[in-house]
Amino acid sequence: MNSSPNQLYAAIDLGSNSFHMLVVRVVAGSVQVLAKIKRKVRLASGLDTQNQLSEEAMIRGWDCLRLFAERLQDIPANNIRIVGTATLRVAANVEQFIATAEQILDHPIQIITGEQEAETIYQGVAHTSSGSGNQLVIDIGGASTELIVGQQYEPHILHSLNMGCVLFRERYFAGGQLQQSNFDAAISAAEALVAPLVVDYCAYGWQRCVGASGTVQALQEVLLAQGYDERITLPKLQRMMAQAVACGQLQALNIVGLSEERKPVFVSGLAILIALFRKFGIEQMTTSGGALREGIVYEMLGEQRQENVRQRTLAGLKQQFRIDQPHATRVSELALALCQQVAAPWQLEDIELNELLASAAQLNEIGLLIGYQNAQQHAKYIIENATLPGFSNSQKLLLANLLGQYQGPLDNACYEQLTGIEPTTAMRLTRLLRLAIIFCGRRQDSSVPELSLTAEGETLSLQLSQPWLNSHPLVSSELQQEACYTLKIGGELKLTAATGS
């Protein structure tokens, strides 16, 4: 069955380094990515000292747009939006480029201001990421860098600066030299540009910093390939700079985890990011699931805007995989109740951990659509390979591993490679999830007992009424089996019976 064309949307970003097209459709209340098409056009490299775009650069852009035009034919005009950014904002002969580009695409192109770009980037981040409090969003493009502080879906302060990885490559690495002096010059220039913003931005403050650019994505790929976790810090950036300097020449740049496509603008983007970390005192940065293109899409999807990102993602998955929603809610509520009882001794008071436990509980049956046998392996595979707006990569991996152990023997080893959470904490969440699933086995609210759970070290003590245990021999047997599984991973589950109903 073909998708209804009214469900299809396309966002095109005519960037200074690359042209991007994102094609999506709305499925089960969620945005499903159908295609991401990207071409390195390097438009900013075609600007001369009078800001005239070269014929060669314009031809590269037009050739790319002919590829995009083919995909746009089947999408309603009202569901298409095309924007131009920093290079097209300053190009003196922009009208020449736009006239031909609009003929190729058969659709108008909007040149957005730096402030509009920053606001749209922020919406793309807000609708694909999750977190509480203020966030600092950074997007390093080819010819501009956007800086935004906001909370949830509201940007508080935003700026677009005339610095980017293509411009800084031309200015500070044009000869292909990778010496410390090149980096120092680029870093100093970037620091000078952001210096006037530091006081205002720090006055707002932020609880987390999110990167939304190709530079940040490339850095994260390098860190993971080199055995680090996904969190970007200043010491890690400085190690990347030392590796680049050791290569000596841009053409000899050889850093483990860095793709060929990323190499031309990697060092210039790295220099800008180091400057931002230094001037703003950034402790760590994570990556976003969206940016400008996603922001454009959500601006077109008025009814999808400003919803809880995680809840939208979970609702879509539950509908797609036909999960019994009342049962999922039952397991989730019991898992959170159990967590609350042991939150202090097990150090599980963090709201984020509680939300991740609840999310895993709501998805515990996601693998059943594939088959009952090995359902936990199916669940793990689905989550590992799904796009989950509202969940970072590390959170997605934690969810996958929680679901991979929701039944059957336990294994400590799978948590050793997780980032952002201690293996002991991950196993504690797993044990609470498994208990909630056991007690909800009959799929009836009335069958869930009152129980008392305490924790000391890795020992859980579970108290239930003796009459309830007598009337639920299957659950009693499952708890005894759970106690055996727990012993094998160095924990303990003690079951005691209390008199009464």
From TrEMBL:
Pathway: Purine metabolism; ppGpp biosynthesis; ppGpp from GTP: step 2/2
Domain Ppx/GppA phosphatase C-terminal: 309-482
Organism: Corallincola luteus
Stated name of the protein: Guanosine-5'-triphosphate,3'-diphosphate pyrophosphatase
Similarity annotation: Belongs to the GppA/Ppx family. GppA subfamily.
InterPro entries the record matches: ATPase_NBD (IPR043129), GppA/Ppx_hydrolase (IPR050273), Guo-5TP_3DP_PyrP (IPR023709), Ppx_GppA_C (IPR048950), Ppx_GppA_N (IPR003695), PyroPPase_GppA_Ppx (IPR030673)
Keywords: Hydrolase
HAMAP family the record matches: GppA (MF_01550)
EC id: 3.6.1.40
Domain of life from the UniProt record: Bacteria
Keyword Zinc tagged: no
Domain Ppx/GppA phosphatase N-terminal: 22-302
GO molecular function: guanosine-5'-triphosphate,3'-diphosphate diphosphatase activity
Catalytic activity: guanosine 3'-diphosphate 5'-triphosphate + H2O = guanosine 3',5'-bis(diphosphate) + phosphate + H(+)
Gene3D superfamilies with a match to the protein in the record: 3.30.420.40, Exopolyphosphatase. Domain 2, Hypothetical protein af1432
Role noted for this protein: Catalyzes the conversion of pppGpp to ppGpp. Guanosine pentaphosphate (pppGpp) is a cytoplasmic signaling molecule which together with ppGpp controls the 'stringent response', an adaptive process that allows bacteria to respond to amino acid starvation, resulting in the coordinated regulation of numerous cellular activities.
